């Protein structure tokens, strides 16, 4: 991903330069480079490439760790098509991605715009909003969330002050997933900081010109800020979407690893974990992992293709 | 006047966001039976019994889990700093065949879901008899597999003037000498940022320890908290909150002391 063109214009790998006076030969640099890269190359082979191929192979097998893997062709994928819990996990994950990512980014953008314009105490607010992003993926905060939305938790306690009878948010299949959406939206600080970095790069002259033309603040936001910020919106969107597809910890803690009630918080990765590490269906889990990889790849590629229509690079020639 | 209104609104919003955390702090010092019945902030009774109960709620005291987490986190920091800085220097500065390819692989692997690799990795480590050791948690870090940090360091090295290395080449320094004496000292900010994020991510990591660590005495703090929660020990919610809060303290300390690096790390590379 070309993050550098989005956030900070850093040169892409420069074209090979003519050798400088006194520079060591290409061959000597190449030898040294491979010494420097030794851990990286070992990792690439042992931790990434071989497992990647192995998991592709395993996805066509039935394997329980005890007996040898047995090749069964596309059976795992056929089983997926009939597996209701698989489809439940797909539904939960899609709902989560489609609702929580846009909400989180909208909050991030709104707060970044409010904080950007000469607000005093910016550093303090920025830190306060960023804090949840650091804590949000921890088990501790997931435990906190469980209590917050529990039947006798803080949320219902506060609703009680207003005479509203709260409900069992986590026991109700209609609301359990929403609590996890709220948790993800709560961590809007990290995309907000990226938005703030982007806002700082919009030249003030553009706003002045817009004001001269009689544009109010709302008009300035839609005609100057939003178009110039689309590269950052795109970057955040891609990153947060990939992250949301892989959500695991919060769902595991809140539902004690079950994904309940009635599979309403059975995230895709949680079901994959259950299949692989509770039931030791390593073949099925691998097949699920490859489906996830393909979906993420397709969605990311889709984002890139669609970006032509809405992402505006100011420095395009 | 308008600025005043905006500050009041912002402060209210900050309070709303932070309120759950404050509630957790207050609840951890309340007697267990009051935690859920009093949503307000001023406890009618203060006790530290929750901390005593929580500390010993599992078979092993929490001091052991903290020590385990610290070991894994520090090991991960060392691994990431050494392996990623070596790779980053080669990718940013040396000319060799395949450099663009390796850099492209680094970028792509930032997006690769861990779940595609975890099943074969688990099989691999289990066949080597390394399940329930810290090996599976630490080895990948020493092999530069956290591509985010390699990327971050490459970007940073590119901002260091090349003339510095060129001058050293002319003076007869080799690549190792240049890396060690010139580039590494200049990339301290990138190293600090990587160290802090490695610490926070490793400290918070739940998935990997959950898979590999099976016996209580090996648990890191997140796995211990999870196990304490699902065992529904007699110590109750107050004790669970007390230990949760303690588990967040190292991150809060880093947050307060290293904000500058955290914010810069986020805004330049977009890592979480």
Short description:
Chain A has helices spanning 3-7, 26-36, 38-58, 75-82, 84-116, 122-135, 139-148, 154-161, 176-186, 189-199, 204-212, 217-245, 249-254, 268-278, 282-310; strands at 61-62, 70-71. Chain A is mainly α and 317 residues long. In chain A, helix 5 crosses helix 10 (189-199), helix 5 packs across helix 14 and helix 6 (122-135) crosses helix 10 (189-199).
Describe, in plain words, how this protein is organized in 3D.
The complex is a heterodimer of chains A (317) and B (272). By secondary structure, chain A is mostly helical. Chain A contains 15 helices and 2 strands. Chain A has helices at 3-7, 26-36, 38-58, 75-82, 84-116, 122-135, 139-148, 154-161, 176-186, 189-199, 204-212, 217-245, 249-254, 268-278, 282-310, and strands spanning 61-62, 70-71. Chain A has a two-stranded antiparallel sheet. The longest helix of chain A is centred in the first third of the chain and has 33 residues, at 84-116. Mean pLDDT of chain A is 87; it is low at 1-11. With 272 residues, chain B is mostly helical. Chain B is 74% helix and 0% strand. Chain B is built from 13 helices and no strands. The longest helix of chain B is centred in the C-terminal third of the chain and has 34 residues, at 236-269. Chain B starts with a helix and ends with a helix. In chain B, 44% of the residues are buried. Chains A and B meet through helix 1, helix 2, helix 3, helix 6 and helix 7 of A and helix 1, helix 3, helix 4, helix 5 and helix 6 of B.
């Amino acid at each position: 991903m070309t993050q550098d063109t989005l956030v900070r214009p850093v040169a892409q790998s420069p074209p090979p330069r003519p050798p400088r006076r006194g520079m060591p030969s290409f061959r000597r640099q190449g030898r040294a480079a491979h010494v420097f890269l030794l851990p990286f190359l070992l990792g690439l082979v042992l931790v990434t490439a071989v497992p990647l191929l192995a998991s592709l192979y395993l996805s066509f097998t039935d394997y329980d760790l005890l007996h040898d893997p047995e090749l069964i062709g596309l059976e795992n994928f056929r089983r997926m098509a009939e597996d209701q819990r698989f489809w439940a996990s797909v539904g939960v994950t899609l709902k989560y991605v489609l609702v929580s990512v846009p909400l989180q980014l909208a909050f991030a953008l709104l707060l970044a715009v409010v904080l950007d314009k000469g607000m005093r105490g910016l550093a303090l607010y920025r830190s306060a909003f960023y804090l949840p992003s650091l804590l949000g993926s921890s088990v501790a905060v997931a435990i906190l969330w469980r209590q917050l939305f529990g039947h006798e938790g803080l949320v219902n306690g506060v609703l009680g002050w207003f005479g509203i009878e709260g409900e069992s948010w986590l026991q109700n299949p209609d609301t359990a997933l929403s609590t996890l959406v709220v948790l993800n939206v709560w961590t809007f600080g990290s995309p907000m900081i990226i938005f703030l970095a982007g806002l700082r790069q919009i030249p003030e002259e553009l706003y002045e010109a817009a004001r001269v033309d009689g544009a109010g603040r709302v008009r300035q936001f839609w005609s100057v800020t939003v178009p110039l910020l689309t590269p950052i919106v795109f970057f955040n969107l891609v990153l947060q979407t990939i992250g949301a597809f892989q959500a695991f910890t919060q769902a595991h803690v809140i539902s004690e690893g079950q994904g309940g009630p009635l599979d309403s918080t059975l995230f895709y990765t949680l079901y994959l974990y259950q299949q692989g590490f509770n039931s030791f269906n390593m073949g099925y889990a691998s097949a699920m992992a490859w489906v996830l990889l393909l979906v993420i790849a397709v969605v990311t590629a889709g984002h890139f293709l669609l970006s032509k229509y809405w992402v505006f690079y100011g420095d395009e020639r | 006047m308008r600025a005043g209104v905006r500050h009041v609104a912002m402060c209210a919003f900050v309070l709303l966001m932070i309120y759950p955390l404050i509630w957790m702090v207050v609840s951890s010092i309340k007697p267990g039976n009051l935690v859920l019945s009093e949503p307000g902030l001023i406890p009618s009774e203060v006790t530290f019994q929750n901390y005593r109960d929580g500390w010993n709620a599992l078979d092993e005291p929490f001091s052991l889990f903290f020590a385990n987490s610290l070991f894994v986190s520090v090991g991960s920091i060392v691994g990431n700093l050494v392996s990623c800085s070596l790779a980053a220097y080669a990718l940013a500065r040396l000319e060799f065949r395949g450099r663009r390819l390796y850099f492209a692989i680094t970028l792509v692997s930032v997006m690769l879901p861990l779940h595609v690799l975890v099943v074969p990795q688990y099989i691999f480590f289990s066949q080597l008899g390394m399940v329930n050791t810290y090996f599976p948690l630490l080895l990948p870090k020493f092999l530069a597999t956290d591509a985010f940090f390699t990327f971050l360091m490459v970007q940073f090295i590119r901002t260091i003037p090349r003339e510095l290395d060129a001058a050293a080449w002319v003076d007869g320094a080799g690549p190792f000498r240049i890396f060690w004496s010139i580039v590494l000292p200049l990339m301290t900010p990138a190293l600090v940022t990587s160290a802090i994020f490695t610490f926070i991510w490793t400290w918070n990591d739940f998935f990997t320890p959950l898979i590999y660590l099976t016996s209580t005495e090996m648990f890191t703090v997140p796995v211990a908290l999870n196990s304490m929660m699902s065992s529904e020990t007699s110590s109750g919610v107050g004790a669970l909150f007390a230990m949760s809060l303690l588990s967040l303290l190292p991150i809060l300390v880093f947050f307060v002391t290293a904000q500058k690096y955290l914010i810069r790390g986020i805004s330049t590379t977009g890592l979480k």
